Structures are given as C-alpha cells and as structure tokens.
Amino acid sequence: MGQAATGGMKIPDPYSLPLETLDVSKAALFAADAHGEYFRRLRQEAPIHYCPDSMHGPYWSITTYEDIMAVDTNHADFSSQDNIVIGDAPEDFITPMFIAQDPPIHDDQRKAAQPAVQRPQLIVLEPQIRDHVCDILDNLPDGEFNWVDTVSRELTSRMLATLFDIPQADRYKLTEWSDVATTAEGAGIEDVDAEARQAELMECLQYFATLWGERAQKPPQMDFVSLLAHNPNTKDMMCNPLEFLGNLMLLIVGGNDTTRNSISAGVVQMDRNPAEWAKLKADPSLIPNMVAETIRFQTPLGHMRRTAARDVEFKGHKIREGDRVVMWYVSGNRDEAFWGDPDVYRIDRNEARRHMSFGFGIHRCMGNRVGEMQLRILWEEALKRFDRIEVIGEPERVSSNFVMGYEEVMTRVHRK
Ligand code: HEM
User: Cβ contacts of residue 68 below 8 Å, gap of 6+?
Assistant: First the structure.
C-alpha cells in the first residue's frame, strides 16, 4: 500500500512500522480509508495484539471473526461496565447507560426499552417509515445534492422522532444531540470542547425530563420514554438524571448514525458496483440480503471495547484484570478465514447475515430489526423511482475509530 493522504497527514504503510507498537486506533486511518491493510497485517501476524501506548492508553486488539465472537459472548470475563469505546469516559461526567453495564442492571433496563423496537411494534412502524421514505424520495432535487443530509440524516431523524413520539418539528434536535454525543474523546477525535458538549447534553436532558414528567402521568405507550417511565425497574431513573441522560444518548445514538451511515454506504456501493445494482433491479427480492451485505461491508460501528473483569488466559495471551480489550468488528467483517473474499461487495452473498456489525451476546444490537426495516423500505422505494443513483466525486468519510461513516456523498438521481 502506498501513502494515503488525509488532511495533510501521511498514512504510513503498516508493514513499514514495528508490529509491537502498531496502533490501529488513530482516527485518521479511518478517515483515509486506510485501516484495512493495518487490520490485515494484525489478523495475519498478531490476531490478538497488545498496543502498549496510544492516545487512549494501552489496549488489546481482537481482530479475527472467531476471537471477536469468543470475547463478545463472554460477558463474565469481558465486562462492559462504564466503557464500551476504546477511550475512557471522562470521570467528571459519568452518564451510565445500559450498553455500558453488566447484568443485572443491563438486562432490566434493556427489557424495559426493547418493546419500542420489537416485532409487534414494527408492524405499527412500517407504514409510518414508508410514508417518510416516499415523501423524502419524491422531493429530491433535480441537480446535485448531498445524500447524507438530504436522505440518510433526514430519514433517521424522522424515524427517531417517531420512536420517541415527539413532534417531527423537533427531529433535528435529536440528530444534533446524537452528533454531540459521538464527538467524544473516546472516539479518537481530538480538539473536543468538553464544556460545550456538556452544555448541549444538559439541554437534551431538560427536553426529555419535561417529556418524562408528562408521559409518567399518562397511560403507558410504546415510545422509549413512556416505556422507561412505567416499567417497575426503570420508573425511578429520573432520580439519577445523568443515568436518564446516558440512556437517552444510547437510544438516540444507537438508532441514528448507524442507520444513517448504512443508508449512505448502500448508495456508495451501488455506484461502485454497477453489476450489483443491475442484479438488484432485476430481482428486488434480493433487498434484505443486500441490506445485510451493506451493513457487513460498512460495519457502521468499527469497534466495541470490553474491560477484563479478572486475569484471563485468552488463547495463549495473559490479559490482566482492568485491561482494555477492543473487538474490532470492522476487522472481523473482513476476516479472509471466515468470509473467503471479504473485500468483495456481493448482494447475494449467502452468509451476509452472519456479519458482526450488530455484535453478539447479551449486548447484541437491540434495534437491529428497525434499522434493517428502514433500509429495506428505502431500497424498495428507491428501486421503484430511480434508474440510477449517481455518486459524484469521492465521498468524505467521518474521522473516527468508532463511527464508520460519511460526512458527504454528493449524488444525482436518474429518475425512471
Ligand atoms: C447495541 C450496531 C441500529 C439501539 C449495538 C451494538 C452494535 C450496534 C455494534 C453493540 C453490540 C455489542 O456490544 O455486542 C448497530 C448498527 C445499526 C444499529 C450497525 C444499524 C445498521 C440500531 C437502532 C437502534 C439501536 C435503529 C434503536 C433505535 C441499540 C441499543 C444497543 C445497541 C439500545 C445496546 C444493546 C445492549 O447493550 O443490550 N448496536 N445498531 N441500534 N443498539 Fe444498535
């Protein structure tokens, strides 16, 4: 691999660097789309790798499909308590959330929120999502536009407003808060203004505290806030406002940029792989598998971190209690040993649904069905309307080791 340029910074060839100190947590690697070769080297030469020094401190990298599965399904040894991204949360502003908790708190809180995105409720949500999709696609401009803002961000913010049952007029507040929450130091982004971030999050708390007060007085409904306010295990959550804020952030972020980036990724891959687009047009029944393959290929969340709950002997490596253990889903989804030809985007790939992008074990993505449903409907409606969605120029990627996404994908639609 040659040198990739990113904002003036050169990305070195991973094979030119000493293996012992290889640091795959640098956000610039992902912004430049140069991380693939780094992970390939780790999978081949040190699939369980210890990086002694990084901007987040020392950490273990788990990079193969099989090893990631082993860590993700062993929550007794590999804890989610307090931190699920490589960087530690700031100690002066702890916002507990159930993704960053172990049983029993995790299980109780997850069960309380889950009905909002489970099967019976999906039947209620489907026509609402379809209406939003049709409205967005029918009103696209004729010329060039940024698909990320006009479609991906727009659709996911409408969806979130629906899941929280708040006025659609407030939907952009949700995406704004989600963006603030993910611009955390833990994601490998430097220059974060911590004070401004906290001020925004407190505004979010204020908004939802008012909503909680109203919903708690009314009969239970299927939106997230009502479900939490009425469940016996979560009805006192407002006594710890930062815990309420943490869980709000989880539910907002979880459903937001992951789905947004999967939508944009589909457009990028369809443009880069015209034969796959032709396959999809010829056989729309491939849409669900295309959605799974897109989510595999993109891996919207690049990693999840665990912390060793005790000294663990893991496949010949001594992992000490308290060590950071990073499961790189973005690498497991490109593990040659599991996938054969992982760098090929193929919408009829048989095993696409076995991707790692939703994680495994007790923390497996709670909203996977609703995320997939949004994507499925979007592609069903896009196929009805467009001959081609043309990507213009090179998409601009997010600079983060956690969120694998796009800032900008300039497009033009060719209507039927
Ligand atoms: C957890 C990815 C959509 C809500 C997770 C995890 C991943 C993930 C990797 C952690 C898994 C683990 O630690 O083993 C994704 C992707 C999505 C998506 C790739 C879309 C393509 C959604 C949506 C929602 C959502 C639409 C809700 C509206 C959550 C929640 C958790 C979670 C609440 C925490 C689950 C727990 O700790 O038990 N997601 N997600 N996600 N996701 Fe998603």
Answer: 62, 327, 328, 329, 331, 332, 356
